[in-house]
Design brief:
Distance between the termini: 12 Å
GO biological process, one term: coenzyme A biosynthetic process
Order of helices and strands: HHEHHEHHEEEH
Pfam families: Flavoprotein
Strand order of the largest sheet: 1-2-3
Mean pLDDT: 86
Helix content: 40-55%
Strand content: 15-25%
Protein name: Phosphopantothenoylcysteine decarboxylase-like isoform X2
CATH class: Alpha Beta
Organism: Carassius auratus
Largest sheet: 3 strands, parallel
CATH architecture: 3-Layer(aba) Sandwich
CATH superfamily: Flavin prenyltransferase-like
Structural class: alpha/beta
Family: Belongs to the HFCD (homooligomeric flavin containing Cys decarboxylase) superfamily.
Number of helices: 7
Number of strands: 5
Number of domains: 1
Radius of gyration: 15 Å
């Protein structure tokens, strides 16, 4: 049975204990959604919060999956393509965003992949990388 670990602002009191321990016991890291700001931080090696610190310390022999989600204009910007390519060059796996009506009202690519797609992809990676 998979262990789900969620990071929230309430969990900041245990940051120091969890920050690097997650990399030791987690079989897979899923970042969903991955917004443009955090994408830029991870691609640049910035680690100024719990998530980016865990990613920076992540054991690259284990799968890291990410689900970009941002508005269409941000998604289509050339910097975004470079940053996604950088993450892929680290061996991270993109679960591509989709086109639909976004929360901002725009219609276009940039919405996070459907939850069923994300779950199916995670299951595939867990089966490929058993304990």
């Amino acid at each position: 049975m998979p262990l789900i670990f969620t990071i929230s602002m309430k969990s900041l009191s245990v940051c120091t204990q969890i920050r690097m321990s997650g990399r030791c016991w987690a079989d897979l890291l899923l970042i969903a959604p991955l917004d443009a700001n955090t994408l830029g931080k991870i691609a640049s090696g910035i680690c100024d919060n719990l998530l980016t610190c865990v990613v920076r310390a992540w054991d690259t022999s284990r799968p890291l999956l990410f689900c970009p989600a941002m508005n269409t204009a941000m998604w289509q910007h050339p910097i975004t393509a470079q940053q996604v390519a950088t993450l892929k060059s680290f061996g991270y796996v993109e679960i591509p965003c989709i086109a639909k009506k976004l929360i901002c009202g725009d219609e276009g690519e940039g919405a996070m992949a459907e939850v069923s797609t994300i779950v199916d992809t995670v299951k595939q990676y867990i089966q490929k990388h058993p304990e």
